[in-house]
Amino acid sequence: MKLSTKGRYGTRTLLDLALHWGEGLVPLKDIAQRQEIPLPYLEHLIAPLIAGGLIRSTRGPQGGVSLLKPPEEIKLSEVIQLLEGSIAPVKCVDNPDAYPRSDLCATRDIWDEVRKAIDGVLESTTLQDLVERQRQKWNLNRWQDHRKNNAPKEGDNL
Amino acid sequence: MKLSTKGRYGTRTLLDLALHWGEGLVPLKDIAQRQEIPLPYLEHLIAPLIAGGLIRSTRGPQGGVSLLKPPEEIKLSEVIQLLEGSIAPVKCVDNPDAYPRSDLCATRDIWDEVRKAIDGVLESTTLQDLVERQRQKWNLNRWQDHRKNNAPKEGDNL
DNA sequence: GAAATTGTTGATTAAATTGGTCAACTTAGG
DNA sequence: CCTAAGTTGACCAATTTAATCAACAATTTC
What's the CATH architecture for B5-144? Predict the structure, then answer.
């Protein structure tokens, strides 16, 4: 039941873009560095996000990627769907018709409830929620040790 | 985010045992047949269930396995924990201390909420719930096509 | 328009995980 | 002592994961 790096890296990538919303194009190189994602891997990661209409990209100098919609209009459920496919814990929940006796299977019902529980969280969380949470954490951190003026500081995935 | 066969087969195995609660030992061979699990694989599956104190086993003729506790005292959360390990979608949720800056990570919070959502379902579901759901399905099925007297019938994972 | 910069695509690959098998062994019953 | 079970450990094939590399396409800048 673990998320793959696609889901983790991809979510971080989109949060990065959301934090830079309104600032134009962000080069993949920068994202790769801040989020500690191998650049060649990130290049492949963004393909489904472009295909899914979440981001746009431009090549050449000053090129990069940016969100196509404001962060508050992008739900985590869309993101994970694009990157990981269905979050259903078993395949028979996704396409019941392919499993002839799924209507006789008691365990299937439970896995569907699990799916609904996960979906409830992802469907009610937007990139904007993540942005606010992130900024709040940075502020808290600044207060906690404001002797060194550091929030956000170099290396903090800003 | 898919469950492996360990979780799926294991849950079915325990539901099978719960359906036979009070009838003594159930041979692995029978479970393997009913649940369509390769016997040699099932043998390995039960090891963590024994170690976890969910079932007991006896070798030799008339041997087999059975639940150690009544079905209503076995929660699905225990089962999945034993078979799949933590259901947290990312490792940093399990042991935050291993991830130095997890307190600065906004995405981590969301994955923890997902974990809690999953846990809510699994923690509130017992094997007895599955048993009742299963028996109910069999009864419904009997009514739906009672021209053929079939519920439960041969091959229906009873 | 040449050169540099950046994203795109497809092939390839190493490592890990999954799902399963096989064989030797142990224990219990008759 | 023989047979019917479960136990354990080694092993293995297939798949998935997490990349990397190279060739290419588009865009900007000089």
Answer: Orthogonal Bundle (1.10)
